[in-house]
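Quality-control log, excerpt.
Job 1 of 2 completed; input and output follow.
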Amino acid sequence: MCNVCGCGDSHVEGHSHDHSHDHSHDHHSHGHHSHGEHSHSHDHTQPVVIHHHYHHTGDVHHHVHYHGSAAEAQTHHHPKPASSEGTHQPERLENGDLHYGKGEAQVHVSGVSQRQLISLEQDILGKNNHIAQHNREHFVANEQLVLNLVSSPGSGKTTLLTETLNRIKQQYSCAVIEGDQQTSNDAERIRATSVPAIQINTGKGCHLDADMIHKAYHQLEVDKHGVLFIENVGNLVCPASFDLGEHCKVAILSVTEGEEKPLKYPNMFAASDLMLINKIDLLDYVDFDIDACIANAKLVNPNIKVIKVSARTGEGLDAWESWIQQQLGALSSNS
């Protein structure tokens, strides 16, 4: 198991090993259908361990972070000792800093060639994307608007989500999949709003993947034509890499983090359709240039939408709610 990005065990609340979906062979055999056409046997009393065995070459356990194209992969490995043959050397920048992302695979792993890394990336991401497409078929069939909420820890993501749910739950059917390394604290906060939620604990894992979402989705009681929020693990790197089958990613950035975040973590903001700048009630107390933050995000992603919000005061939440309503309307018109 990769101890850096946790290619290992995750816990999905209430999920048993007896599950009729086997995605190791044909993930598309079900086509477009609703939950009622599935046979699932679940034990809701105890969480169980789900083993995620990502394929490996020899004893090199790998985990790939995908950023836009096959050439933009970032990969974390724990390889067994190997010779330095084929090892990519970092590019030395003009100021003397080192850049390891300039090779063919745009990542450095000691003892592993750039070609090997690209092959590993294609293997892992191909399998994840296959399951993500199956998830997407479920979401389309059930007319679910699925929003993948991504941020660094401490952005106020869960507080913003609970306030959002309290505002829209009477108008729309809502459900939540919560992702954290440990505890079910956030899921309990969501359930306190009377919205169904299921917790995924990723252990050492730093992101949710499509298979975790598939298993969790079939534990939820969801109505047609609603909103499913996926609150990803707090991390501005890894969740950008994995398609979950969602409608879009929503990046949440608080004013306590710094306006340069979109430039430091460009893949996340490039992958997101919307950036919510949260905790704007603190602008008078922090050194944060909100216009510079928006400009930085636009440099990375010229098409990104931006809404300024405060979960504490409610400022901007009307605009956020209107954006959700627009996405639901577009989803209905396309179905």
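Job 2 of 2 completed; input and output follow.
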Amino acid sequence: MTFTNAPVTRLTVLGLVSVSIAASMLDVKHYFYIHIDTHLWRYRQFWRLLAYQLCYTNSAEVLFAAMSLYNLRVVERMWGPRKYASFLIVSSLFTAVIPPLIMAVLRPLSAALFNYMPAGPTPVIFAVLAQFYAVVPHTYKYRVATSQAPPTSEPFSGLTLSDKSYQYLIAFHLALLQWPGSVVGAAVGWLVGHAWRGGILPATLVAWRLPAWMVGLSAQRRSAEFEGLRRRLEGENAAAAVSTGVQGQAEGQQADRRRTMGQQIVDQFREAL
């Protein structure tokens, strides 16, 4: 499997990996995470709210984030690159502000435990994961026994999983790497994703779309796609019409044969009389 029909996902993964590597090589990783008391309250560095989701600060998070985005590319294939890119931008704006705000509220209540907001787009990934959970059906399910095989008279004891479970496990592991800040970000991203889908967010934001040229969709390309769709539908209609005509002709021939046999019977009775 590749990034076919998922250009936004390909650009997101390449950009995330490139920026993370560049931040490490240039030794500027300290600009991408947030200490609530120092960076926001003391020095008023509010620009960090827009910067902290641009990259990760360690290789493990980069790996699991890239794997998660790659697994979630099916959402872009179902929606199209324009809608998917628009959703990423809208969700990133909400997740840029809400998780640090929640951390700022919880910090004085938890002895400064909720003071560190880690770098990385984990909230955005979980917003996409919420869409994946809602729109992509599972293909199969399987069971994992938690004990030895029970006798036939006892019910099965174990876990029921699906083919989507490993994608949730990868994202869940990503959320635990920088606990508790990453957990807060993941929870907010999940809620934002469901709020976007459930119509809780303003309708103007949900309906907003990026210009087509920004995701590589020109007017000529869209017209070619519609023309191909029109031709495909016309071909299907023509095939259906031919099939219907052949079926009607066969039924007519069968009816003629039934009428001919009936006429023969009537003629035989007439000759006998």
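Post-run check on job 2. The chain has one domain: 7-145+158-217.
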